[in-house]
Amino acid sequence: MINGPRWMVLLGLLIGAPAVAAAAFALAPAGSPWPLRLALGALATGVFFLWLRSLRAAPESTGLKRPLFFAALLAGACAPALVRWYFDPYGMWDGMAIWNARARAYAEAFSAGQPFVWSRPEWNHPGYPPALPLTLAAASLAGGWGEWLPIAFACALLVGTTGLIYSAFTVNAAALKAWPFALCAASLPGLSIIASDLGADYPLAFGLAAACRLALPFSDQPGGRWNAVLFGALCAWMIQLKNEGAMLALCAGALFVMMRWTRAELTSNLTAGTGVAAGFALLAAYKAVAPDPEAMPGEVADFLTRLLIPANYLQPAAALLQFHALHLFGLGALLVYHVFRNGRMTALAPIAAVHGAYMLIFVVTSYDQAWHIRTAFNRIQTTLWPAALIIAGYSFAHPQVSRAAWLTRFVRRSKEAHAPETLESAR
Amino acid sequence: MRNRITGLALFAIAWTVMLVLYAQQYKHDEESRYMNAAARELATFAGRIPYGARVCLQTTRAAAADLRGAALYALPGREIFVGAPDASLPDDCYRFAAGESVPPAAPGRDPAPALIEFLTIGNEK
Predict the structure, then answer these.
(1) From CA A62, how far away is CA B125, in angstroms rounded?
(2) Rounded Cα distance, B14 and A180, in Å
(3) Which of the residues in chain A have pLDDT under 70?
(4) Distance (Å, whole) CA B58 – CA B82
(5) Is the per-residue pLDDT at B105 higher than 50?
(6) Beta strand pairing status for B79-83 and B116-121?
(7) How far apart are CA B26 and CA B48, in angstroms?
């Protein structure tokens, strides 16, 4: 079963191998024949797998095994996506026209041994980061492009995300008590639907959830250098996935440092920071050569002016309320309540900050606000949900004494301290 | 055990209700419906349109962006033109084929053959 260090290997398989192969393929000398590029990709992947083997040296999991729970989670998380793919196998607009169109174009250029050229870049946001199309294109080297490829990748991420949530709620008996909450929260159709869109949102959600799983000191966490290396690689991958990935990588980085703010963990923090910095450097290099690298057209002064107009906050605020009521069905409030009760609000702070920052994007947007909210609000806010669930799992598994409990204990101790005097005076 | 089964049953009912609500919402998602139908239809033409060819598409639907998106996915490596749903399309297509307002053939790639495909995709019901 997917638990403990094994899910780290799963992460590596899902992200690392195709990403390494794609990078090696893309970095081969210009004009070299495709067998050489393929061999280079295979070599890089082989080295990566050798590195993965070292992860097996991590201590075995002490987690609980609940196959029925995992099966229920998986069924709840995957069913809406499977139903939608039956009707719309190509996903939604962004998935088809931005991410998979480019993946397919990369794949055809790779297999033809020709340099990639943009076809109608003005139609599909060429400035968006390239990790997802490159990963899919690298995977297509095995047997050519097929419409099943993006679906297979999304399915792998659905299983991976479910595995991460399962592993967070089966770390110990205390966490497992919250299985009904985990089941309801992981089965929200809104989460599954963004996977079925076949865009970069669900990979981003998976990346953030995995980064949070690595950042939080769960009792089954192997820790150490490789944990930090994998965390840094994940952050770099998130930055290459989507423009919002930069914000999420910083959020995960903040969580990682917050959980390891000691002198002994300095090396881990530096290693993770190197991964994040490398991700930003790669993104800057890509934006320097990509046509139309802007995420949102407009001047900084205009964005700041829009921040000062109170009317711009009305629609995003209404969308936020609707998101919590109809998209998360109130489970967000329940999650915050439990994390607060378990004394782990600090861990939730970076995610809450991004939740608010996402809202500001819709306040300052240079697009038509109603259109932007309708097409993107729920989708990008949902990317935070699996990570929030991992943090909830951590809070259930490792609760801290909350303020309320501390007060209760203080009052009880005070009573006990005064009890003998009371007895003596009674005599 | 009985509590667990009751809980799972309640969950299954609530989950089914949520799923039905979502299905209702996506049933009316015309954009995805149309794009998927167009991509499926375009895929049947992909075999006979050579790589690098110039393809003219026309839609009777107002949102040409949806057809563009579907064509980008279903016809990679072709120069695509999507005409507005009016009678001027053939002229636009000929101008497009003559090389007006389109980027030159990419380096390292054969020049685009003088082939124009007129496809009318996604007629309204």
Answers:
(1) 60
(2) 13
(3) 1-6, 9, 23-34, 52-63, 222-223, 293-295, 401-411, 415, 418-427
(4) 6
(5) no
(6) unpaired
(7) 33
| pLDDT per position as a tens digit, A38-54 | 777 778 777 777 776 66
A254's CB contacts (< 8 A; 6+ apart) are A350
Nearest residue on chain A to B22, alpha-carbon basis: A189
ipTM for the complex? 0.75
The Cα–Cα gap between A73 and A182 comes to 8
How much is the pLDDT for A47? 78
Higher-pLDDT residue of A181, B76: A181
**B47 contact residues in A (CB cutoff 8 A):** none
Of A327, A345, A350, A353, which Cα lies nearest the Cα of A392? Answer: A345
Q: Is some CB atom of chain B closer than 8 A to the CB atom of A120?
A: yes
CB A41 within 8 A of CB A141: yes
Measured distance CA(A350)–CA(A353) in Å, rounded: 5
Strands B54-59 and B79-83: parallel
Of A97, A187, A193, the CB nearest to B15: A187
Q: What is the pLDDT of residue A377?
A: 94
Q: Residue A207: enclosing H or E segment and its boundaries?
A: helix A201-215
Contact list in B for residue A104 (CB cut-off 8 A) is: 73, 76
State the maximum Cα–Cα separation within chain B, in Å, rounded to a whole number. Answer: 75
